Design the sequence.
């Protein structure tokens, strides 16, 4: 898919959903402010930027209430909803999802690890749908003092190597 097409899809989606869109210059990390319906993203130079942009839009438009009734919605569930939104949009546009599914999965696992490290979430309470999406053995995280997830994709987005998880008990 051409860069211009991806850029215009993001603009159209933001207009349609009444989201204020600001282009940022420096890095490729996205940013979103749900209450103000505002996102800040890097200019789209490739599919990974496109992915990040869709993920941030997902934070604003994805409905998590159907997935979970918890209030407030835990951060890892909000990330899950944004990931699913971005993957669904890419699938509808006919983009091969292989790399982005992996990217989303590794990111999701690291967000869950953060929540467990901060004692905001217990392993047994991880939503089953999200656990299935992550597709790792979370029982190895029981009674962990700290979990560290190394995400190779940040430096090597096309890496085929699985993420590395270090569990300290
Ligand atoms: Zn996010």
Sequence:
């Amino acid at each position: 898919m051409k860069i211009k097409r991806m850029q215009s899809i993001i603009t159209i989606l933001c207009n349609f959903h009444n989201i204020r869109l600001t282009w940022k210059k420096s890095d490729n990390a996205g940013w979103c402010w749900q209450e103000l319906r505002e996102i800040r993203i890097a200019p789209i130079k490739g599919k990974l930027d496109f992915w990040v942009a869709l993920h941030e839009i997902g934070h604003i438009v994805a409905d998590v209430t159907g997935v979970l009734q918890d209030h407030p919605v835990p951060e890892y569930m909000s990330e899950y909803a944004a990931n699913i939104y971005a993957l669904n949009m890419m699938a509808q546009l006919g983009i091969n999802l292989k790399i982005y599914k992996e990217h989303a999965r590794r990111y999701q696992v690291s967000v869950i690890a953060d929540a467990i490290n901060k004692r905001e979430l217990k392993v047994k309470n991880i939503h089953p749908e999200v656990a299935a999406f992550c597709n790792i053995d979370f029982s190895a995280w029981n009674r962990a003092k700290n979990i560290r997830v190394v995400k190779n994709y940040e430096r090597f987005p096309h890496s085929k190597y699985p993420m590395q998880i270090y569990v300290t008990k």
The mean pLDDT is 88. The chain has five helices and five strands. Strands lie at 20-23, 31-33, 38-41, 146-150, 164-168. The pocket of zinc ion is lined by residues 55, 59, 79, 82 (CB under 6 Å).
